[in-house]
């Protein structure tokens, strides 16, 4: 029977985590504490507001709501400085090939990302028009691991959740897909993403017949 695919953005289609890191690190520098790449792992798949809270916890800093709003704006401005320079050559290995394959097979796909900048990033890399729908940080009220983002994705695909296959690089995203009763595919470290139904190091590792058995 018919299936559909929901793609996470950061960590699956592009590596924007490195730009988030640079922008958050600048804020940490300004606030006078160290923010490492290891710390940055904690922010993957997490919303912008939650990311700031985690960052401030790491620095042991407590600030007013007003200051928080100010930092959220300045971090995003710095981040935009990086992503407005992104181009198609930043699409991660295997992603374009997979979209081509899905098009050929007539399998529809939507985006399911926590990022409010997702439409901009997809335009930068030339993939915006390929998706049957975009669900991003602007369209949800509850962040992953809440399944909301993927359940809206299923609606956009006009499919039942158990007919949806989610590609995710973050633990919170795999959790969200599992709670939604979807097939979860972990992209990245399989020990970290051990709750996923399937694991692949990256999208180039996906076997040709991967979708065949899911369609029965
Ligand atoms: P923004 P994804 C997530 O993207 C990132 O992994 C996460 O680090 C970021 O905080 C979040 O988007 C929000 O991004 O500040 O652009 O709204 O993995 O869900 O595609
Ligand atoms: Mg991600």
UniProtKB/TrEMBL annotation:
Protein's organism: Seonamhaeicola marinus
User: What EC number(s) does its UniProt record assign?
Assistant: 5.4.2.6
Residue sites binding substrate per the record = 8-10, 24, 43-48, 51, 75, 113-117, 144
Q: What is this protein called?
A: Beta-phosphoglucomutase
What EC class does the entry list?
Answer: isomerase
The record places the active site at: 8, 10
**Where do the annotations place Mg(2+) binding?**
8, 10, 168-169
Check the record and name the NCBIfam families matching this protein. bPGM (TIGR01990), HAD-SF-IA-v3 (TIGR01509), PGMB-YQAB-SF (TIGR02009)
Asked if the Swiss-Prot or TrEMBL record annotates the protein with the keyword Magnesium, the reply is yes
């Amino acid at each position: 029977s018919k299936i559909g695919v929901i793609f996470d953005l950061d960590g699956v289609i592009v590596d924007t985590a490195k730009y988030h890191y640079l922008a958050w690190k600048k804020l940490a520098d300004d606030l006078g504490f160290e923010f490492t790449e290891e710390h940055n792992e904690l922010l993957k798949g997490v919303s912008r507001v939650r990311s700031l809270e985690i960052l401030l916890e790491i620095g042991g800093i407590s600030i007013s709501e007003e200051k928080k709003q100010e930092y959220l704006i300045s971090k995003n401005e710095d981040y935009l400085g990086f992503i407005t320079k992104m181009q198609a050559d930043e699409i991660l290995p295997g992603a374009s090939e997979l979209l081509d394959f899905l098009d050929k097979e007539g399998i529809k796909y939507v985006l399911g990302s926590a990022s409010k900048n997702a439409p901009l990033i997809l335009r930068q890399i030339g993939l915006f028009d390929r998706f049957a729908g975009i669900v991003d940080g602007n369209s949800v009220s509850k962040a992953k691991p809440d399944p909301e983002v993927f359940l809206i994705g299923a609606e956009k695909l006009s499919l039942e959740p158990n007919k949806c296959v989610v590609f995710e690089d973050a633990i919170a995203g795999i959790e969200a897909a599992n709670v939604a009763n979807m097939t979860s595919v972990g992209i990245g470290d399989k020990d970290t993403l051990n709750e996923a139904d399937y694991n692949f190091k990256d999208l180039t590792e996906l076997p040709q017949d991967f979708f065949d058995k899911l369609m029965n």
